Structure of HAT C-terminal dimerisation domain-containing protein:
Amino acid sequence: MNSSFNESTIDLTLSTTDLKTSFSDDGKASSLIKKKIGGKGLEKYFENFKEYIAGDSKAEKLQNEKFSIPEAIVTRWNSQFLTVSKVVDIPNTLLNDLLNEQKKTELLLSTKDLAVLREFISIFTLFAEATTRTQAEQSISISLVGPSMLAIYYDLENESRICKHTKPLCHALMTSLLARFGGFLLNLEIPVDDHVKHRNTFNLFSDDIFLVASFLDGQFRLRWIIQSALPLDTKDRLCEKIKNLVALWAFQLIGCNTDNQDGNVTQAEVTTSTVDNVLLCTKDICDGGGLTPKRKSLFSYCEAPQTESKKLRVDAMNEIKEEIMLFLKDPRYETSLIFDKKNHFPYLHRLALRVLCVPATSAPAERIFSKSGLLMTPHRSRLSTDTLSKLTFVKCNVTLIC
């Protein structure tokens, strides 16, 4: 367990250059789609939906079925994704009929427009889900990184083969993914080009914590490896690697040294036992009585031993490995499994408390920053840093106080 516990934060947001990449080889087509959806297009049109559709039967049907196009937030890429997906969700025939009746023919989506939009949604679906899940409050997030990145990598590979209009977008996203998570993918024995390895962000996520955290999450364990598109022999090696990592990390928490667990511990106990016997014999001989047998008594089998035998440290590793096997065989696939059964998995539970508390994104810090911004108003501009810190602490933990 390295110092990366404090540094292991992951941001799944995408750069604006990725989103501005042309949706198709025809630049005019992508710009036309942008005009139709954003700005003063469909997005703006649906803001004033009731104004345009009063008394129209088709429009009322859209309203009754709760179709809408939310306004996209420029600084939130997943908000733009939601806007596009809502457009595609509306039946195209119904939408075009409505636009024709309202004489908004410039907003009509052609067959090619819809094809481009559907490819766009297909590419970004997993990105959007990963962003939403990792930024959720009061939930474990670090365990989502490994399964998410592996699934997104193979999904992008598949999309790049089947897409017709968005190949440049797929290429840009794959390049960005390899540059940021190449070290993690190498840990999964996925080959990465040498020129990408020289990026300064390549090894940011190469720490083993992302493998261990996913294992400790009851809903994943090793399923995200077994159910992936990795080769079978690679899956076997990775499963053994992850189990060994978990065992080693759990073993380190109990203060044992794996290098001398077999020899030194046993030798120390043998030496201690020998010395004790010698001292006992010497004392008895000096007293003149020689070796005297223990005095007999009734119900001696009920007496508690004077000194409990110390559990050998070497047994701890075996117990950890047994816990791992039982954990893998448990039929419940829930994130909280290791916490619900902490008495059954004491070693793994202790490790999970250390690992799963790491946040996967900067969202928690951003929320605290936003709450501090609400406290620091022009009327409170002279608050000291200490007072602001205490007020922020109280505001963020008000549910625990009340």
Summary: Residues 1-29, 48-55, 256-275, 277-286 have pLDDT under 50 and may be disordered. Residues 111-134 form the longest helix (24 residues). The two ends are 36 Å apart (CA to CA). Residues 9 and 166 are 30 Å apart (CA to CA).
